[in-house]
Every structure is written in structure tokens, then in C-alpha cells.
Design a protein that fits this description.
The protein has 140 residues and is mainly α. It has one domain. Helix 1 packs across helix 2, helix 4 crosses helix 6 and helix 5 crosses helix 6. The relative contact order is 0.14.
């Protein structure tokens, strides 16, 4: 069956192909908000012209897969699993600072991600529970 026929027949495939261009970035912010610290680290590093191998590693997956998704090849978060170690290292660099507010924010973000994981395993549709309802509507 041709791919355009699959899109018509299976709603999941239609949903996967019609994701917004910012899917990889906003999806991680919703599922594991601790990665927001990673993106702040990346922006700061780019601004100060210090591009680390981890940034190159992460963007070597994020950018090409976003471009493929924009061309109709579909988006799935699992495609960028190889970028997660680089993002974790960048996040750890942020959390390693002596700034207490950054550490508290990191713990809060980790707690939200942990709660999201628990709710995802207990409830079929965690997006129906506030505040996840609001956050998950970004991808609707």
C-alpha cells in the first residue's frame, strides 16, 4: 500500500507525519522538562562561541530528523534516542554549577518528568490530567 494511502487509512500514521516542525524540542520539554536546562546551555554556548562536541552530537540528530519530518517522513521521539547521552551531559554541566536556583529548578524539572512517567504508566491518557492537559496540547 502506498504511503499516501496509509496516511488515509491509519490515523496514527497521519498524526505522526503531521507533527509541527518544533516537535523534537517541545516534546522533550513536555516529557522531561530537565532538558530545558540543556537547551539553555546550548544557547549560552553558541552565544559565547564555545561549541562542544556534545552540542554537535545532539544537533547531528535533531536537525536532520527535523528536516526529514518537515518533508513528510514523520516524527517519532524514539528516532533521536542516540542524542540523549549528549543532552544528558549538557544538562549535567548546567546542574554542576554552584547556583542554588539552577539546582532547585533542575530538581523540580526532574520531579515533573518523574511524575509524568508514573502517570504515563498508570493512566492511559495522562494528557487529560492538569497540567499535562495544557502542555500536551502543544502537539495537537
Amino acid at each position: 500500500m502506498p504511503s499516501h494511502e496509509l496516511i488515509k487509512v491509519y490515523p496514527f500514521i497521519r498524526m505522526m507525519v503531521n507533527r509541527p516542525w518544533h516537535f523534537y524540542f517541545t516534546c522533550w520539554a513536555v516529557i522531561a522538562p530537565v532538558y530545558l536546562l540543556t537547551f539553555f546551555n546550548i544557547l549560552y554556548s553558541i552565544k559565547s562561541k564555545r561549541i562542544s562536541p556534545e552540542i554537535i552530537w545532539a544537533f547531528s540528530f535533531l536537525i536532520p530528523l527535523t528536516l526529514l519530518g518537515l518533508n513528510g517522513w514523520g516524527f517519532q521521539t524514539r528516532y533521536v534516542v542516540p542524542a540523549i547521552p549528549a543532552l544528558a551531559i549538557l544538562c549535567a554541566n548546567v546542574l554542576d554549577t554552584k547556583d542554588r536556583w539552577v539546582q532547585v529548578l533542575g530538581v523540580l524539572f526532574l520531579c515533573v518528568g518523574f511524575i509524568t512517567g508514573i502517570l504515563n504508566s498508570l493512566v492511559f491518557r495522562p494528557e487529560e490530567i492538569f497540567p499535562f492537559y495544557v502542555l500536551m496540547r502543544i502537539h495537537a
